[in-house]
Amino acid sequence: MSKGDLSMGRHDRSFALAVTCAASCLLATAGCRSASEISGPAPRPALISDAPVNLGSGSTRDDSRGRIVAAPSRITDFASTESSITVDAATVNMRRVFEDLGDDATLWYQHVQTLANPFFEGRAPETHGQVLTARYVEFFFELYGLEPAFGSRGYAQPFTYNKRGATRISVTVAEMSVDGDTLTDGEDFVVLGNSGDGELTAPVTFVGYAVEGGPDGYESFSDETDLTGRAALVLRYTPVDDHGEPAWDERATRWHGAIRRKMRELTDRGAAAIILVNPPGAAEAPSGLEKTDGRFGPRLDIPVVQVTPVVADAILIEADPRGRGLAEWQSLADDGRITATGLDDGVRVTVHAAVKRTRNRYELSGTNVGGVLPGRGDLSDEWVVIGAHHDHVGFGEHGGIQPANRGRLHPGADDNASGTAGVLVLAKMLTEAYRDAPRRTDLRSVLFVTFDGEEMGLRGSRAFADDPAIDPDRISLMLNMDMIGRLRSHNLSVLGTATGEGLPELLRPHFERSGMTVSVTEGGSGRSDDANFHRLGVPALHFFTGMHPEYTSPADQAYTVNPAGAAEVLDLMFEITYDVASRLEKLEFREPPSSRGQNRGYGRVRLGIRPAMGEDDLRGVLVDAVSEGTSAAAGGMTSGDVIVAWGTSEIDGMQDLYEHLQMHEPGDTVNITVLRDGEEIVLGITLKAN
Q1: What is the β-pairing status of strands 517-521 and 475-481?
Q2: pTM of the entire structure?
Q3: Is it true that the peptide bond before 416 is cis, omega within 30 degrees of 0?
Q4: 180-346: which CATH topology?
Q5: CATH code that applies to domain 3-85+119-164+363-593
Q6: Model confidence over 504-545: pLDDT tens digits?
Q7: pLDDT tens figures, 573-584
Q8: Could you tell me the sign of the dihedral formed by the alpha carbons of 87, 92, 96, 101, in that order?
Q9: In the chain, where does the domain assigned CATH 2.30.42.10 lie?
Q10: 596-689 — its CATH code?
Q11: How many CA atoms lie within 13 Å of 109's alpha carbon, on the beta-carbon side?
């Protein structure tokens, strides 16, 4: 539906759709309700249009016909340029604004304003706001006459799940000396959180910035570099200029400056210990020593310490026959005039380190809320599901992505009060449409459901999938809304468009009538609740209006959303839902080709698995699916395996797995241990490029 049609009343639109449906039955063979049966099949099986479209601007829109384009490879790359105009806040007629927006947009905006209010405490687990949110949704389901979805439990589906807390790292032994002179823990040095346990005495090799293959031929190592039995003294970051600023571009600085990468270069060359030091004068170098924590990568098998520049200077002066200190050695490294250089074997450092890691587990509770709009006739025992997650991250403790914002309220207006409001508005729209449809119109039942615990790993939708209120085999389509509140330049992303046989052909006319530019992704993102319906073998779509700077932050306030844009999205979803609900054919699930080989942005290599979400009660990472043609598939990994180790390092969760992937290059071969049918199996896997 074009933007100019938003003023059509819901009763008129429902009646028009019902008449169209009835006319379809009269014009086609008995029982036919498919638009494709009336007008013929879509001329092209693919959804993507031939004409290029500028996703960042509305300037290419020369008519009201929608366009269909390919989406970026990662959902987090989808974002549009703001196209709204500024008005005078002192003179704008707000009543006229909402009258022009219409009832649906206004109602949607009211819901978002309410759910993003501080009264709901960011809708986080284990808060009173979590309880209030479920009651709020239930109130409107009951108001619209929806039947309880969960039998004797009513509208609510409570569930519990185990959650792993942060890994607590404590140093139990921290001793260091240089030629017998004892250093003070916490003042001269610290043991870093990725340190292995061990005690050694060894000579020192200065390795500069530990860079291999840097810009313009920069190298910290020669072909003969061998660190076996030696402690590697390494500079943090990358070379700097005379002002202490990075000498390389942002990408090279970020890539070669990663501590994980440096440490991998050193361990690959046999280092017996690693001594890290912040380069004096570097603009980004913090003063003082780091805290002992786990942000320096996976645990290594060797001791890892950080020393102050003063200690590093003393080590170098004593061990360098020419008596040069840290500033001179750093200058050589900054200019690329030196590779790894062994110092006097007679000067030795002693390091004794032991680190204990513990991770607590705790139980959380959640509540899904579901209401049923009963269908009618021959299709009443089949289903369409409309869903969204109603939870958010509270004060940043549960799922917040910016540590600096912890303790501050995260309202979650777009993520995902916008989707929850969408479910409630569509419940009203479709209830009225079903009421006004001709009596003899066969219609599928519709389940409206909001999920809890999505921010904690798709917990609510997984609980629903494990104990569904309806038979998954009788679901024709699931429509998921996660962040539909920030439509800009009429650009919408829809994922999962090829997860059903015939789904692309069904969607094309709706997208083209919408007046929007629809960026399509054949497979799902795996990052929202539609993923658990794919796991059940149900075709599922994910509607998304794009990333923005306020994502998962205290700035995701209700005043930042776009009610007119939400109305466009909801009109499109209404038409798709009514079409699917009223057509004779049931959509059947298919694995979309684009779900294989998709770049998830983890690093230069890709394992090629879909991890099961919400499995924190397990040791390791449960493999939900393995994509064809990937590293995991070639190495023999299968669905149901649990990844428990990478080399000699335990894998406790996805973060551990990400960190190992980020440390490798295409062509590397690694040993990954999986638990399969109670037996540990070691798989040799050659990593392919992402």
Answers
A1: unpaired
A2: 0.69
A3: yes
A4: Glucose Oxidase; domain 1 (3.50.30)
A5: 3.40.630.10
A6: 999 999 999 999 999 999 998 888 999 999 989 999 999 999
A7: 999 999 999 999
A8: positive
A9: 596-689
A10: 2.30.42.10
A11: 18
